[in-house]
Every structure is written in structure tokens, then in C-alpha cells.
Design brief:
This protein folds into three domains: about 70 residues, Alpha-Beta Complex (CofE-like fold); about 110 residues, CofE-like (60s Ribosomal Protein L30, Chain: A, 2-Layer Sandwich), CATH 3.30.1330.100; about 110 residues, Aspartate Aminotransferase, domain 1, CATH 3.90.1150. It is about 25% helix and about 25% strand. The protein is built from six helices and 15 strands. It is globular.
Length: about 300
Amino acid sequence: MVSKVEGRLVPVAPGEDREAARQRAIDGETVRVVARRGPLRIVETRHGWVVAAAGIDASNVAGDALVLLPEDADASARALRSRLRELLGVCVAVIVSDTFGRTWRDGLTDVAVGSAGIPALVDHRGAVDRHGNRLETTQIALVDELAAAADLVKGKLAGIPVAVVRGLPFDPPAEDLGTRPLVRLGPGDLFPYGSRDLVATRAPAHDLVSRPGELEAVATAFRVATAALPEFPVVLRYGGEGDGVVDVHLPERATTTTALNLGALVGAVIVQLHAEGWTTRWEPVGSPGGTSLVGRLWLGSPAG
């Protein structure tokens, strides 16, 4: 609703393929592709959200348009809060929500994409529970819980744009940061490579020495290469920071086609890395099949 009021709509021309228009809109809202399978993309948006299809909605909107996320939903929430105070003389918190999926869980739920006048997180770290345990990591995503609860009232098909929550005690934040504290990026992001898993560290290849930025270089090279083979069944598992090693697995039983595709993929990655001045070594491991390890790519500079 907020996006529609603010004109965050992408028109779909008569006769234009709506899915093609949606893919172009995703490109425009994406700063990083985290994972992809066919036309489905999980991406990081300019807002810092990691979501499917950049949060672009093709439902609850006319067939000649698509809906983008608000440009700055925190600013939208602040403007709504200020206008409500001006018109009605009430001081309320405002949450702007949208429907997101969740990693490793089926089903959708509403989460906060913008907020004002309410803390995004309630921090219990340092508190002691009734058994004497000190809480080390517990932070409650208060605005997400409220967004999900409000959606039970609004629903997806009832056409109800607003829900009012009464009776919740909370301390207004001294500094209103909106939903920014919810974004987990940088050192706090344990899965920066999306479908590529992190594994325990290994010793580097004997003839290569580590260089700064190894893993990001490999990740970028594989992202570029797999863009041409979005359906290729390959899983990458990275070593620890500074390892300079990526294990390549096949989640499906190998065929002649997957073997050829794997060779093309690794070859494209190695060519790209060499063009950027990296030294690589490809080491086949075992025989492919099931989810077996089929090879290991080492990255670094020549030893000595």
C-alpha cells in the first residue's frame, strides 16, 4: 500500500511479457545475487534486505504494473507517524510491512521493512533467565513479530491495508534507527555466498601461498560463470578465511552432460581468475556421484 501511494510502480506495456518486465525490475533493484535457480533469484537490495525477487510484487496489483519496495520505508514510516500526530493528535509507532519468505522454512510471513517510534530489536543480552543462565545473543525482532501478528488481521486477500495494535508496552528509542538494526551484513553474515556452504578450514596447497581477498575473488568468478549455467547442479563449499580453497560437489548423479558442464564452468572460472592475476590449481577428487566431492580449486600465489 505504501509503495502504491508513493508511486513505486513499474508499468508493463500492453503486449509486453510481464515476467520479462519483472526480471528487468529485479535487475534494477539488485546490488548482489546471493543465489539463483532458473528464473528465481535471491538477491540483496539497495536497502540491505536479502529477499526473493528483490521484494518486487506481482500480486494485489493490476496486470499492467509491478510493485517495488518503498524507496526508504523507514522514512515512509516517519512521515506517516508525523502526519498522524498532526491530524489526530496521537503519538503512535508505525510499522511498514511486506511479505517475505524465510530461509529453510516453507511459508510466508509479514516482516517490517520500515518503522518509526519503536525499537526494531529488544536486546536481552546480559540478562539472566530464571535458571541463572546469562543471555549472550538474544535480541527479539519486535517489529517483525508485530508485523506478522498484524497480518493475521489484515490477511492477503481481504483488502485491509492497516491494523492497529493496542496495549503493547515498549520504550521509544532514544535514536530512531528504524529497521536498520535488523539488517545482518558484513561480519555478522555467516552465509554471504548464499547456497555455497561454509566448512572448516584446511591447510593451503603446498605450492601456493595465501593472498588477501581470495574467497571473494573465487566467489565472484563462480557467480559470473554460473550466470551462464543457472540450472547447472553444482554446490560450492568454501574453506575458512585465507584458505584459498573451494570444494566442488555435484548434488545429482553425474552424467556426460554434467561432466561437460562442470569442465566448462571450472574452465571459465580459472580463465577469469588468471586474467585477474591469480594462480590456481584444480585437483579432481574421487569419482562423482550423489553429493560427492568431485574436485578442489586452490587459489593463491606461487610459493617461494
